[in-house]
Design goal:
The strands form two sheets. Strands 6-5-4-3-7 form a five-stranded antiparallel sheet. It is globular and about 45 Å long. The protein is of the alpha+beta class and 131 residues long. The protein folds into two domains: 31 residues; 84 residues, no CATH class.
């Protein structure tokens, strides 16, 4: 298996991220490389955008479709479902993680972060029906 060299400081950060994410250090590197290598636009057409959220210590990963504004939760609480909006997905995550919360309302545009940039999903917001 190929290997890469990291300085001590970077290696420490990768190990820390692995602990936080609950995975191996190699998985941290794989996810990072994958998030940067997936082009968000191909052939001029908008593609799904990788997003994530952390709610009460639970990390959730999803794909946002800019054309339809649907959000698919791919990993974590509420995974395996396509939601009609970022807010619907956020509310499902909140309900899954904290079922005792009586009103799981959330603004999905602020709840989700674009994995590539770290910005809130609202940084990609366009008027409905436009791409």
């Amino acid at each position: 298996m190929p290997a890469i060299e990291l300085d001590e400081r970077t290696y420490g950060k990768v190990v820390f991220a692995a602990r936080v994410m609950g995975c191996a250090p190699s998985e941290v590197v794989r996810r990072l490389v994958e998030s940067w290598s997936n082009a968000e636009e191909a052939d001029g057409e908008p593609q799904d955008v990788r997003v994530h959220a952390v709610y009460r210590g639970a990390r959730v990963i999803g794909l946002f479709d800019p054309a339809t504004r649907a959000l698919t939760v791919t990993e974590g609480p509420a995974a395996g479902q396509v939601y009609t909006s970022p807010s619907a997905a956020a509310m499902a995550v909140i309900q899954a993680v904290n079922p005792d919360r009586t009103s799981p309302h959330a603004n999905g545009w602020s709840f989700w972060r674009v994995t590539r940039s770290g910005e809130e999903l609202k940084s990609l917001r366009r008027p409905a029906g436009t791409v």
